[in-house]
Predict the structure.
Amino acid sequence: MGVPEALQADPDEGERLHVDQIADEFFDGFDVVADIARPAVSIFGSARAPRDHPVYAHAREVGRLFAQAGFAVVTGGGPGLMEAANRGAQEAGGVSIGFNIELPHEQAPNEFLDLSLTFRHFYVRKTMFVKAADGFVILPGGFGTLDELFESLTLIQTDKVIDFPVALLGVEYWSGLLAWLRDRPLVEGMVSPADMEIMTITDDPAEAVRVIADGYRRRPEGHTVCR
Ligand code: AMP
């Protein structure tokens, strides 16, 4: 097959189409996000935790408590701890939302979603997690979860997002990472003491709810401020 005629005429056409697709994805995402009830929380955690793992039960409890506190619960809509948080939220009669991602290996959204939206690009989806929520809860996880954690910390540190609490759940799981941040980046001046205060680390889901509800109440207009 030869190069399509439109591309021969304008070599930038392919890129333009790609950028249009990305813009459409942002528009569609913003549309959905605008209709999400507030307050809302984005909950992250491992896609790989099996249903019989204790952290799955913990994540389900987290989803349940946020729903009982009146929060819509947003996750990546996948399996593992995402599923657990959605499941807990739905069981408590709350609004359960999944921002799924198209991956090379086929994957269905979990079965505990009231609203499901599928993104093609990770970076569009990441924006929506922030836009849709009044805070982040980070459960134990791997690269994906760490990416979401550090994305939020960077936005907060640089004042791109204001009054946006981040709760790390699982003291034992996260303490090694926090110790390293204190021992190296903090000691060497690569993060400031104030940066270290952005995160609340706890084992208590009720404390995570408190921290995020307090942040929500502090915001004058009640919505996430993104600059
Ligand atoms: P990980 O901690 O590496 O298991 O990645 C989990 C986090 O990254 C979740 O909070 C998701 O937002 C995203 N993610 C990674 N894998 C998936 C997946 N299979 N389905 C949906 N989201 C995923």
The mean pLDDT is 91.
